[in-house]
């Protein structure tokens, strides 16, 4: 049940708490999220230290966050589908496959962005 006085700063604090709880649950229950977060933490200093323009640095960092965001959405979709039923159903499989494809595309975008920015520096 939704609290009657859930507005203003109280709403912001509650929403922040829910977000932290969600990040914690993703870390605890989702191996892919843990792997991508560790990779993002390792890649972030590279983005900050490499000698490229500020817009290029931002693109590199934004794509890291995009991968994490899409992985969180994928995990949420999988949790909801699993909550509804353990039964194998074509629509459940389709939902999970489409969410997985979104993660794959975000990873491709991240790799292409980083490659386009960093490869010219190497050659």
From TrEMBL:
Its cofactor is Mg(2+). One of its GO terms (molecular function) is kinase activity. Its EC number is 2.7.1.107. Its main location: membrane. The chain crosses the membrane at residues 37-54, 60-81, 102-122. Keywords: ATP-binding, Cell inner membrane, Cell membrane, Kinase, Lipid biosynthesis, Lipid metabolism, Magnesium, Membrane, Metal-binding, Nucleotide-binding, Phospholipid biosynthesis, Phospholipid metabolism, Transferase, Transmembrane, Transmembrane helix. It comes from the Bacteria. Catalyzes the ATP-dependent phosphorylation of sn-l,2-diacylglycerol (DAG) to phosphatidic acid. Involved in the recycling of diacylglycerol produced as a by-product during membrane-derived oligosaccharide (MDO) biosynthesis. PANTHER family: DIACYLGLYCEROL KINASE. This is Diacylglycerol kinase. It comes from Shewanella corallii. The lineage of its organism: Bacteria, Pseudomonadati, Pseudomonadota, Gammaproteobacteria, Alteromonadales.
